[in-house]
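ENTRY TYPE: paired fold submission
RECORD: A
CONTENT: sequence, then structure tokens
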Amino acid sequence: MDPNLGWGAVLGAAFVYEMYGVFNKTDGDTLSERLRDWFRISTRGGKAAFVIAWLGLTAWFIPHIINGG
């Protein structure tokens, strides 16, 4: 399978599901709502865990893309 086709299908499906969640007005269907629940953002520890995870992902992802490694 062509990787562009595979990743396009994955990202396209994610986008379609996100739009479904945005427009159906049901609580808990969007990625941001799921992240708030998974990380328990309403707690101080949850906020800290999310920020640390996000910064870790960013610290890895940006050099990975820019440097091709």
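RECORD: B
CONTENT: sequence, then structure tokens
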Amino acid sequence: MSTLDNTQPDHNDDAGATVYDLSARRAAPATNLAGAELEPQHVVDGVILTDEENAELDRRIGRAGIARVRNVPARVVHTVRVVRQHEPTVKATRTVLGNSLYVVQGFESWARRAWDAGTFGVYRRQIKAAEAMGDREALREWTERKELAQERRHRRLMDLPGMAAGVAQVTAGSVAALLVVLLAISALVEITDTGRFLAVWEGILDAIGRIITAVTVVWTPFILTLPALVLLGAWREGRRQGTAPGWLSTAAEADADVTIDETTIARALEALRIPQITAYIKQGLPLQYITTARKDGRGTHAVLRLPAGVTAEKIARRRGDLATGLHRLSKEVWPTTGSEAGILDLWVADKGALAEGAGAYPLLEEGIVDIFKGVPFGRTLRGEPITCPVLERNTIGGGMPGQGKSSAARCVMAGAALDPTVEMRIWVPDANFDFEAFKPRCSRYVMGAEDEKIAEILEHLRELHDEVQTRGELLIKYEEPSVTRKLASAGIGLHPIVALLEEAHVAIQHPSYGAEIAQLLVNIVRLGRKRAIHLFLSTQAPTKDSMPRDVTRNCSNGIAFAVGDHVANDALLGQGAYAAGHRATELIPGTDKGTAVVKGFTGERSEIVQVYFLDVSRTNDQVTPIITRSLAAIETVGRGLPGAAVAAPAIESSRNLLEDLDAVMGEEPIRVADLPALLALLAQHAPRWTPYKSLTGKALRDQLAELGVKVPSTKNTYPVDPVTVRDALAREATADLDDEG
């Protein structure tokens, strides 16, 4: 509203319309339609209308029979209906009406419950629901239950006369026994001269009189307060079971919580306006609860069968809409598919319970880890701590960018760092700062996307693959099927190795080294598990092209943040996970950041977990203190950094093609197309030189031309003469000597 000090209401007509001059200055006194000059009055508020709004207002006023406003030159005169509301009065009225309605709904709830108790209403509704669902087994069960309940009630009614006679007999016997005891006490008092015979009876009568007086004193206030107590009870019942209309809601109640029970859930489902649910509830049929709503950790859990034609997946897709009906945020409501497509497994967090996330990392300040018992990972939605098993496992984790994938990897690696016996290896084929803080704790660390860095990662994976074979021989020597805690701590080369390949898809899809990297990963996850080698593969895109299927099949731990489709979902959580209702596709990017669906962590097929967050920013570096503490723990046990005693494999950055050709060629010319295979099999010289493995005859011919070795076509066979190769090699050696001279 605008405040114009020189704008006055001009007049009020019988219809309640008020004429205002809203111009900045008055060119002439305002007049009404009769031509009479209006008395100026003080105006506090006014509204400036556009020409279109003014025209619409004129049309509405004309229909209502109210005199229209005529424009005065050099000023704007609008007609405005002013409605004032006294907020305290409105709030008080809503409060009174709302609480009164609660009382009425409370009495209604009591009456309904009494009627149900008298007419077996619960059984009738369940029988009706079973008939509507066509569930013959449930229909037979509830019919039998109703008949048993009726029989028990009939038996109790038939037993009432006998029970009343028994109570009367017991009462009469008790009174008679009491009189006998009093007579005996009175006689004893008289005989022993300790008092009079009648004094005992007088004392009893006096006590009875006092009790009657006390009851009389208490009875009157009780009778007076009884209606208030009944109204209070009805109010509480109505508030618990009833629902106030929306127009009675106040701003103060906007953040009020609601009790999550069967009634609330049914109303929230009905509000989705799914035809089958709406029709089912309109028939007065109750939803069938396999597990009734009950407290479960930080929220409420319920399992129910949906009406025919409605799948739990359909409800899950409308998670946000369901959350509004339950007065919750989307991330506080978790509908998933139960044991059947039509069974909804619903967990609803207490309001605001998930806002704190998983909480602080439990080993942030102190503590060490036994890697054989797992590492701290996060909390389930119910608030229970959950650990990530490491030994005899491999892990694959992934999700859309920015949803917590790298944070989950940091969490696992930080826990592993706090076991002094663990050797850590981290490879990041990208320019990424996320794991730089771990570098002092690692025996192998590579970060970068350049070809040289990918080649180094490949060499380290070859080394790890050789380590797998060596450890197999050690297990045979020590006659153990797998590495135990005792062997891991014995210093015999069987200490645990936890290796992380971050952004694994980048390395796997490298044009030169990717194929060999993929095969090495397959072999390591297949064989390294029992040999205390844990491989953690983290990726954004777990597809058949970016992650070998044999890797995903052999990773028993799966961590899935929000993913885009069922293919990525099943790659992370196992084949058939999506169809079975274990769906990271239901996580909402951004809303569910830091929340993942995990497999292999517990006895359940999957769990929804809020993952601990470890910050690596310069202003709040939480990882470096953990790494410093882990290095101190290693020093305390008197050992060096695990794995550091073995030098990292040397990385060949280049080879002399002429020297290698001299080594593989004899005295006779060889077709250029046959030479790449000889170079790739050069066991003593270049067994791991990847460029030779992808070398073609044409590419070799081009490289030789650059080195001054001409390869003739000779009937399109392009033979390479070893003499020309060795001549070029000699010229190269002579040129080197000339340079030195």
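NOTES ON RECORD B: Confidence is low (pLDDT under 50) at residues 1-28, 30-36, 40-44, 66-84. Residues 465 and 524 are 6 Å apart (CA to CA).
STATUS: closed
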